[in-house]
Each structure stands twice: as structure tokens, then as C-alpha cells.
Write a structure and sequence with these properties.
The chain is α/β, with parallel strands linked by helices. Helices cover 42% and strands 15% of the residues.
Length: 318
């Protein structure tokens, strides 16, 4: 079981129930090298207690493995904590798997990562391996390529992560080039991502994932997606930073048996049907632009008033 040799980075903060479920799932896989990066508590007793309980759950890992820990003393926030955690991870490893505390993998994902790494570890065009498949349509091959580097359970290489630019220093110039304008077939998609990246650069959005996506696109990177979804996301709750709505918590994680040699596309280019589906259904991009954003707000208020006021509160007081 060579997949046990793949180093694993666990990213966490203050959700002990989530970290417990993740550790339970990893016990079936028993990875030999585990790196744990936890953000520190905010300045209140409740957060300190939650973060302490998370550390207690980490101490319950009882299979034979080497564990390295990086615990922040203070709260750095999602972007800084995760960025520094992944940097630390890739200083020690050329390849590895990254799991946030709410991303529950199965053995199939580890097997998939092992095989894709063997096939593409020296291919500089391939930046990430995702365990998440939102498309979930019938695919004849074992995998396909996407421009979207989903981070709900993913693998990557030091050679790719070196392009992560936490300050998005290239964005203001790049967004005015033909390279950027030709990246998206649809103008709505382009305008959506311009809005997201503008806010991310100004740190109005506390997201390392958007920075990573922009960095991957700037360097023409591709993501490998398995033919079926291999990750269960359990993070759709009130405590989530970004995934408050439950629109995707039904996404089933499949257990797949892969042959020795995976079959994939011969040409390295994104599956356009998947990328269109992901933008329209996962990101629901147009509903963050005028005038569709008004319809989204009205719909949320009518269908889920509690969630409406929770989101409004975060916008007003974050």
C-alpha cells in the first residue's frame, strides 16, 4: 500500500468534531507521515477551549506514524494561517496531500493521488490533483483536466506551490492582458473572477484558496479531477468560514478501484463542459454580479431567513 507513504497535511482551527471525523477516516488509511498546522485561538475563552479540544483530538492518533506539528499561538486568520501551513509542509516534502478539517477522504483518493503523482510528477503543466468532482457526469476515462483547482482535499507538488503569491502582486497588471481575457470563454465568468480577485488582493476576502486559484491560472496550470467525487465535505454549518449554505453537502464520496495504469485524456486541456458546469452550479457566478445578485438576496431571505441574517451580520461586522 504505497499510498500510505504520501505525506499528509492536516489544516485545522477550532472545530473538534470535524477534526475527530477526519482522524477517524485517516485511521483506515494510516498515512505514515502527518503534518498538522492549527491556527491559534481568538482572544476569548470559548475559542481557547475549542482550540484546546482540537489539540486533544490530535493526541488520539494511535497508529504507527511520524507526526510534525505547527501550532499558531495567536489567531492569524484563514489566509495567513493556511498559507504559512502549506509553505511549511512543502519545505519538507516534494509532494503531498492537503486536507482541511472538514474534508473527509477515502482510500480511493489516496490511491488516485499515488497514481497521478507517478504519471505527472515531472509535468510542469499539472499543478494540482483534486479529490472533488462537482461535475459528476459519466466520464469514460479515469480522470480529466480542469482549470479549477478545487481545494476540498487535494494533492500538489513543491514545484507548483512555489508559484503561490500571497499578495497577488501580479494581479493588477495581469488582469489587463490578453492572457487573462482569453482564459475565460464567458464574459460573466471573467467579470465574476475579476470581482473576486480584486477583493482578495485588497484582503476584503480572507481566502488563501482564491489566491491559489489566481496563481495557478497566471502560470497556465491544470488540475486533475477523478471521474467520481472522492471527498466528503462536512463543513456546511454555522461554524464554517465560507461554506454556510448546504447546497453541496449531499455530494457523495465514491469508493473506486483503479487499474494499475490510469486512462486519461491524451491532450492536456480542460474539459470545457465541466468548467462551465462548475462555474454555473458551484460558484453560481452570475448571482454575485448586478442585477442577479438582487435575485439571490431575495431568494435567500425567502427560503432561509436565519441564514440571510447570519450572512448580513458577517458582511456588516467582519
Amino acid at each position: 500500500m504505497k499510498y500510505r507513504n504520501i505525506p499528509v497535511l492536516i489544516l485545522g482551527y477550532n472545530r473538534p468534531k470535524h477534526i475527530k471525523k477526519l482522524i477517524t477516516s485517516l485511521k483506515k488509511i494510516k498515512p505514515k507521515n502527518i503534518f498538522i498546522s492549527l491556527d491559534g485561538p481568538k482572544k476569548n475563552e470559548t475559542d481557547r477551549i475549542k482550540c484546546h479540544v482540537v489539540k486533544n483530538e490530535i493526541e488520539k492518533i494511535n497508529w504507527s506514524c511520524e507526526i510534525k506539528k505547527k501550532y499558531n499561538l495567536n489567531n492569524l486568520g484563514c489566509r495567513e494561517s493556511v498559507y504559512k501551513g502549506i509553505n511549511w509542509f512543502f519545505k519538507h516534502n516534494n509532494f503531498g496531500i492537503v486536507l482541511e478539517d472538514d474534508c473527509i477522504p477515502n482510500i480511493s483518493f489516496f490511491t488516485f493521488c499515488e497514481k497521478i503523482n507517478n504519471k505527472y510528477k515531472n509535468n510542469k503543466k499539472i499543478f494540482t490533483i483534486s479529490g472533488t468532482n462537482f461535475f459528476n457526469k459519466k466520464i469514460s476515462n479515469d480522470y480529466f483536466f480542469s482549470k479549477y483547482n478545487h481545494c476540498w482535499g487535494w494533492g500538489s507538488w513543491k514545484r507548483a506551490w512555489k508559484y503561490y503569491d500571497n499578495n497577488l502582486s501580479f494581479w493588477n497588471n495581469w488582469k489587463n492582458t490578453n492572457s487573462w481575457k482569453l482564459l475565460h470563454q464567458d464574459e460573466i465568468e471573467r467579470k465574476y473572477w475579476e470581482k473576486i480577485f480584486n477583493k482578495t488582493k485588497k484582503r476584503k476576502i480572507d481566502s488563501w484558496a482564491y489566491v491559489w486559484t489566481c496563481s495557478v491560472w497566471k502560470n497556465n496550470g491544470l488540475t486533475v479531477i477523478p471521474k467520481k467525487n472522492l471527498i466528503k465535505n462536512i463543513g456546511f454549518d454555522i461554524g464554517a468560514t465560507h461554506t454556510l449554505e448546504k447546497k453541496l453537502n449531499h455530494l457523495k464520496a465514491f469508493s473506486l478501484k483503479f487499474k494499475k495504469n490510469l486512462i486519461g485524456p491524451k491532450i492536456l486541456k480542460p474539459l470545457r463542459a465541466n468548467d462551465e458546469y462548475v462555474f454555473n452550479n458551484h460558484f453560481q457566478g452570475k448571482y454575485y454580479l448586478w442585477p442577479w445578485v438582487v435575485l439571490k438576496v431575495i431568494k435567500l431571505f425567502l427560503e432561509n431567513p436565519k441564514m440571510f441574517f447570519l450572512k448580513a451580520n458577517r458582511v456588516l461586522f467582519s
